[in-house]
């Protein structure tokens, strides 16, 4: 599965600890992250991560583009609910796209934990069906 990891500054440590705790599970998946979040995870784990721009510089929108192209299966986005962000419109747009395309998204560590356990159990296999249908539809349109 393709998984994006994003955390605001106050939540970065939580996300780093989360990736350390579930490192073996994450190893079997394709990981993406915004710039600083990805750097922090790379420093703390042996995971391979494709890093986008930092969130305020467009990283949230780059993850949104993955969703728009049906190339993301899960977003873990630990937001800071106590601090206004300069790029708030990008954050809202990213979460909106998750709803548009029915992408599972966790915005706090408790939900992230439930989704990751679901991933481990195989609850995300329906995403493969969605991707196959999309690829078939794209093939027919060509
Ligand atoms: O701001 C962010 C998400 O909105 C996260 O960006 P960084 O990972 O670059 O700090």
Automatic annotation (TrEMBL):
Substrate binds at residues 8, 12, 34-37, 54-55, 87. The keyword Lyase applies. It catalyses: dihydroxyacetone phosphate = methylglyoxal + phosphate. GO terms for molecular function: methylglyoxal synthase activity. It comes from the Bacteria. GO terms for biological process: methylglyoxal biosynthetic process. Gene3D superfamilies: Methylglyoxal synthase-like domain. It is an enzyme of class 4 (lyase). This is Methylglyoxal synthase. Pfam families: MGS. It comes from Ferroacidibacillus organovorans. Catalyzes the formation of methylglyoxal from dihydroxyacetone phosphate. The active site is at residue 60. Keywords: Lyase. Its EC number is 4.2.3.3. NCBIfam families: MGSA, PRK05234.1. InterPro entries: Methylgl_synth, Methylglyoxal_synth_AS, MGS-like_dom, MGS-like_dom_sf. GO terms for cellular component: cytosol.
